[in-house]
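Example (one chain per record):
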Amino acid sequence: MDADEILLAVDPSLRGTGFAVLQRSAGKVRCLHFDVIKNSPKLTVPGCLLEIHTRLTDAILRFQPGAIAIESVIYVQSFPTAITLGSARGAVLLAAAQRGLPIHEYAPRRVKQAIVGTGAAQKTQVAFMVRTLLGLTVTPPPDAADAIAVGFTHFQTTKFSAPATLRRR
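Predicted structure:
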């Protein structure tokens, strides 16, 4: 691991993709940037996917992360919802793959467990703990807080061992 690591963390969603740029230096994690890609309900699905891809590509170019951490697929009862979420994840993964970034995936329950101590935590609990753990002056919006939590989980996990990554050939 590098002495100074930068990570792009993402909580994908078609209408509200949260993302954050985290830095680990000398064992301390800090948040350099967070935001939510808010897509209007009037925007078509392809338009939403393009916006997600474009904004994350811009973040990758601006912050030069060494890897990406993303929330893995959750169980959904609705087939259309699963397709939509999978499409949003695809836009995120494409942006990372185009830059050759290693991709690390974390299950939602694992992220909540790492941040709050229980896999059944509510979004407000995650946001509060993210603010507390990283010493933020504001509480991030829920989607951005979830992304920060994914990144924090990655840094906790890689402190002890490196998870398998997907790499561009």
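Caption: Residues 102 and 167 are 5 Å apart (CA to CA).
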